[in-house]
Amino acid sequence: MEAAAYQELRIFSGNAHPDLAKAICSYLETSYGACEVFEFSNENVFVRVQDNVRQRDVFIVQPLVSPVNTNIMELLIMIDAMKRASAGRVTAVVPYYAYGRSDKKDQPRVPITARLLANLIETAGADRLLTVDLHAGQIQGFFNIPVDELTALFMISRYFKEKDLKDLVVVATDVGASKRARNVAQSLEAPLAIIEKRRLGNDDRSQVLNVIGEVDGMRALIVDDEIDTGTTIINAAETLKDRGVTEIYVACTHPVLSGPAVERLKGAPITELVVADTIPISKEKHIPQLVQLRIAPLIGEAISRIHTGRSVGELFQLDMEEDSGDPKVPNAMVGAERG
Fold first, then answer.
1. What is the pLDDT of residues 156-208, one digit of tens each?
2. Are residues 264 and 304 in the same domain?
């Protein structure tokens, strides 16, 4: 069925991040879909769609955040409810894709949970997936439905370009994150350095072995896709301080901030922690260094393009033209909130 055959788009969300869904609706100037989603006392999830979705183009906004497994079940059951209500097309909008680190068999007798989750989303009835900065790009290939992966890197690059920091070096937290960091470094016309580290076991411990690149006497911008317990970022920041870095900034797309992350970051030698709001951050996790960039305009624009059958890939071209200073391109994706 062609995109033009669908009736008006409808945006719904579970309980993971309703504020993001409402911000997307505000950007698109459309109403927020009415849907009842709650958990019975026996922990069974119940969903009842309260709007007519027959032949509508439905988008369900649900980052897979804590409580992760409950939010996964909410998403799957909502997809099933929409399909049984005769929705024309259902797109799972998953700004943060959980289990992204379980993308391969790197130990004997372990699962590939990212692939299992993809199978579950497809089996529930999703027709396509819209996500932001997957931990591993190959996760796109785990799906047999169309996947649109957006990136917050252009927003992050523009934020730091406007700060116009002198003597800046962009730092990747490990070799795996070097491609993201390299793209930011290229946008900022800054050199790249890489932290060489070794992960110890399965409990988020890591050991820094070396810093590849010149960092002495420079400001550092550490770039990663997510911050979980904060171990990697703290180790990187302390190592950079020891190597003569004068000021440290940290940027990531997904502020998971689990376990001791907040307390660790409060005492870290970090001037600013710049994140996208793909994940809701509770008040107790707001630290003085925190700056949140609004992701709703980017996701909203992608939803508009999917609904009308226009290219989502053109968004990346627009972002690159904005970064180059082309005055013809409106800077619609920028927005920041402190604290």
1. 999 999 999 999 999 999 888 889 999 999 999 999 999 987 665 555 555 66
2. no
Q: Where is 60: in which H helix or E strand? A: strand 56-61
Sign of CA dihedral 78, 83, 85, 88: positive
Number of domains in the chain: 2
3-state secondary structure at position 137: helix
Global pTM reads: 0.90
197 is catalytic: yes
- Confirm whether 67 is domain-assigned: yes
Residues 145 and 157 in one domain: no
Find, among 202, 201, 206, 148, the residue nearest to 177 by Cα.
Answer: 206
Active-site annotation holder among 105, 197, 266, 285: 197
Query: CA end-to-end span of the chain, whole Å?
Result: 45
Give pLDDT tens digits for 77-113.
999 999 999 999 999 999 999 999 999 998 899 999 9
**For residue 290, what are the β-bridge partners?**
273
